[in-house]
């Protein structure tokens, strides 16, 4: 199942916060169903072994609605491109992302 479908099935459509750890090569995205009713993140999407990462630093941790996610093979990695209301960011990894309940 594509990542966009997994997220849609879990009904989390807003990014609440993101954190990139360059030492661990890990990128976490905390997701919520409705930011107006925020009681903590509903899900966490984790990417391990991140090979490349690009994002607009000015809007790094502001709540944002996901509009779409593209994914495609790039050599021996997968590239994920997130389109939101405020920004586009992308990353590349050779590991399957993990979506967990919080």
Rg calculated over all Cα atoms: 13 Å
* Helix/strand/pairing category: mainly beta
Helix content: under 10%
Shape: globular
- On the 0-100 scale, what is the average pLDDT? 88
Beta-strand percentage range: over 45%
Major β-sheet strand ordering: 4-7-6-5-1-2-3-8
Largest sheet report: 8 strands, antiparallel
Question: What is the first-to-last residue Cα distance?
Answer: 21 Å
The total strand number stands at 8
Low-confidence stretches: none
Give the helices and strands as they follow along the chain. Answer: HEEEEEEEE
The total count of helices amounts to: 1
Task: Describe the structure in your own words.
This protein has 102 residues and is mostly beta strands. The protein contains 1 helix and 8 strands; from the N terminus they run αββββββββ. The protein has an 8-stranded antiparallel beta sheet with strand order 4-7-6-5-1-2-3-8, covered by helices on one side. A hairpin with a 4-residue loop joins β1 (14-21) and β2 (26-32). The longest helix has 7 residues, at 3-9.
């Amino acid at each position: 199942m594509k990542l966009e479908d997994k997220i849609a099935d879990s009904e989390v459509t807003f990014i609440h916060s993101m954190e990139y750890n360059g030492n661990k090569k890990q990128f976490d995205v905390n997701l919520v169903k409705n930011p107006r009713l925020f009681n903590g993140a509903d899900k966490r999407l984790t990417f391990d072994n991140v090979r490349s990462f690009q994002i607009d630093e000015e809007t790094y941790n502001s709540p944002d609605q996901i509009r779409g996610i593209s994914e495609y093979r790039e050599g021996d990695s997968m590239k994920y491109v997130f389109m939101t209301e405020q920004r586009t960011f992308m990353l590349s990894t050779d590991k399957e992302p993990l979506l967990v309940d919080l």
